[in-house]
């Protein structure tokens, strides 16, 4: 299972994206963390692995612009730093 299948199976996570199948892994992670539930987050981690998910998250934080909600950004920053 690849991470793109998460968005294909749950299109409401990227409801405003014209073609969710073309999203990058970083963007899919952003949508899952912002709009998904805990099961969606765990599914992403199961597919990608905890270390790789944390790397994607931390890489996206270095971008000039991210769309993480402040509470989501704060929570998962701590979550990944404590679990990796």
Automatic annotation (TrEMBL):
It comes from the Bacteria. This is Uncharacterized protein.
């Amino acid at each position: 299972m690849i991470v793109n299948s998460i968005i294909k199976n749950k299109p409401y996570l990227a409801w405003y994206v014209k073609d969710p199948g073309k999203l990058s892994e970083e963007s899919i992670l952003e949508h899952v963390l912002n709009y998904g539930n805990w099961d969606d987050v765990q599914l992403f981690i199961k597919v990608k692995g905890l270390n790789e998910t944390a790397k994607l998250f931390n890489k996206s934080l270095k971008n000039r612009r991210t769309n993480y909600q402040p509470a989501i950004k704060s929570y998962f920053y701590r979550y990944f730093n404590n679990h990796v």
